[in-house]
């Protein structure tokens, strides 16, 4: 059966409602969707609403905004050469150049690069790296991971196993997932870390002989609760990993490329992980691409495992279009303007402290308002749109992680939208 092409907004939305799944949405009783007809800079255009400031940066990825001339040009020029070739047995300049750039800018020692096709896959690869490394070091019984409660690392199976086991989005799968070891959430910003650190060290020591790695989101827990924590905890993670021979994995898919105020969140603690996961903003939000970087030591362990090779290889690994755009995004970041922009956004987000809420958190270009009850997402969204802001609340949180190109007026609009959403929701 051939379905006729759809043109008007009502027809597109009707077909969408009947046939398209959206993230975490019922197919039988789907949440409302809005039709985007254009985007430029910090704004998206929604049919029937008009232009609004995108407080989500397309789930934290579009840090340079939309239709950036440099990123458009990189995409167009690479498409005129070739859009994709398999990465098995072949290579190309965009992938090599991107890998060179990533080795240059990431924390010390991370000089092996695996180009994946999404953030979840990046974390899956990182976990495989840790497991194969331990096998190569003749410790095959080390098959579990240490992490902390409140985390989120993606929706694929191994990733789900290291997400928060109780308050996260994957509790329904708990009986099917590997049993990982969960420490308590790190303390909130400004709180003393001593008692938490003692408990975490004791937990690691108790389970060390079966642990392959330690995986955390450094400095800011994202979709698990939008919760920042002290940089001292990163040093505890590094010390624990060193003491017990664990592969330390930092999932910087949300925090990388300046979001928390340093280029990588790891820098705030002055530590380097053994494996680093990057995604989201890697291409400035243009195309799906992720990277998993590891040290030479981890790579040697993998080479000593049963297979001798890293057992993963996506079809679109090293996609030339995505790699070319990612390098262009790194060019924009290399100007250093992101630092000024993140500081400026941070200053504007301080207005959120005036919102009547249970808690307000501001870190880098992240602003979070926590209510004392679950958000009425529909009402909160409508209230924010009335103020000219696109937000996507969840659980008891209304937050923004906007494009860095937002003007001061844009940030003020987002704060007004969050305030209205908090009142309505």
From TrEMBL:
Pfam family for this entry, one: Aminotran_3
PROSITE patterns in UniProt: AA_TRANSFER_CLASS_3
Location of the protein in the cell: Cytoplasm
Binding residues annotated for substrate, in chain numbering: 59, 152, 280, 313, 392
Site (Participates in the substrate recognition with KAPA and in a stacking interaction with the adenine ring of SAM): 24
SUPFAM superfamilies associated with the record: PLP-dependent transferases
Biological processes per GO annotation: biotin biosynthetic process
Pathways involved: Cofactor biosynthesis; biotin biosynthesis; 7,8-diaminononanoate from 8-amino-7-oxononanoate (SAM route): step 1/1
Reactions the enzyme catalyzes: (8S)-8-amino-7-oxononanoate + S-adenosyl-L-methionine = S-adenosyl-4-methylsulfanyl-2-oxobutanoate + (7R,8S)-7,8-diammoniononanoate
Binding residues for pyridoxal 5'-phosphate: 119-120, 251, 314-315
Cofactor(s) annotated in UniProt: pyridoxal 5'-phosphate
UniProt modified residues of type N6-(pyridoxal phosphate)lysine: 280
GO cellular component annotations of the record: cytoplasm
Keyword Lipid metabolism: no
Record-level Gene Ontology MF annotations: adenosylmethionine-8-amino-7-oxononanoate transaminase activity; pyridoxal phosphate binding
Keyword annotations from UniProtKB, A to Z: Aminotransferase, Biotin biosynthesis, Cytoplasm, Pyridoxal phosphate, S-adenosyl-L-methionine, Transferase
NCBIfam families listed in its UniProt record: bioA, PRK05964.1
Family membership noted in the UniProt record: Belongs to the class-III pyridoxal-phosphate-dependent aminotransferase family. BioA subfamily.
Protein name: Adenosylmethionine-8-amino-7-oxononanoate aminotransferase
Species of origin: Saccharopolyspora flava
Organismal lineage: Bacteria, Bacillati, Actinomycetota, Actinomycetes, Pseudonocardiales
